[in-house]
Each structure stands twice: as C-alpha cells, then as structure tokens.
Design goal:
19% strand, alpha/beta, disordered N terminus, 5 helices
Amino acid sequence: MVNASLPEAFTLFIDRDAWSAKLDRALRAAEIPFVAHRDLFAHDTPDEKWLAEAGRRGWLVLTRDQNIRRRPDELKALRDAGVLLFALTSGNLSAQETADLAVSCWPRMIRLAETTTRPAIFSITRSGDIRRIER
C-alpha cells in the first residue's frame, strides 16, 4: 500500500523472503507506506529485476537475504540501481518479530535514507541495531 502523500523514496519494498501477513498488518497499522514483492512480481522473478525497479523508484528495500551482497550479479544490480537495502541479520525471526522490528526501525531507516548516498546496504540486528555493511 503506497501512501501518495509521501515521496516514493520513503516507501518500503518488502522482498518475498521477508513478507508475511503479520508484517503487512503491522505496516498498515503503523501507516508505513510499502509495496510487497508479491504485488508486483512473480515469485521467481530474478533479484536483479526487482532490485532495478526498487532503485528506479527510490524505494527502501527490506530483505532477509544477506547474500545479495555476496552474489556478483545481484550486487551489481543493487549498485547500478542505487538501492538502499536493509537486511535482517537474524534468519530465525518469527513473523511477529519481523513485523515489530520493521515498525520500530522505520524512523531510523528514514533518517538514513535522508543522509546516505546510495547505493548502500545496512544490517538490522534482532535488537534493532542498524549498521552499514556495504557501500
């Protein structure tokens, strides 16, 4: 759900591996504008394609896929598109924990979006710490 009153740069794109119904409900309740991978792309769409679109639109990306920065084609797509990506570092977060973390970290993600030159990759830890891990 994209809120037209906010710039697209402050829209959160939820990668297919991070999306859940609980996250959807939490983002809506917190009035955080977002687009889910499933709303625009087939499940098997290559990461390079949706990364390019997220970059073109200036969306902030939330994913569980920490390996995007390790796969040369995906990292190149991220860099070429100027993506600002936030990777959840704990692979065993429940859907509710993911939802709570996304909502609580949103204000800091916005501040980083306002002050960070793209592209950039940040990690989000289980405790909510956000650290830059890739330029």
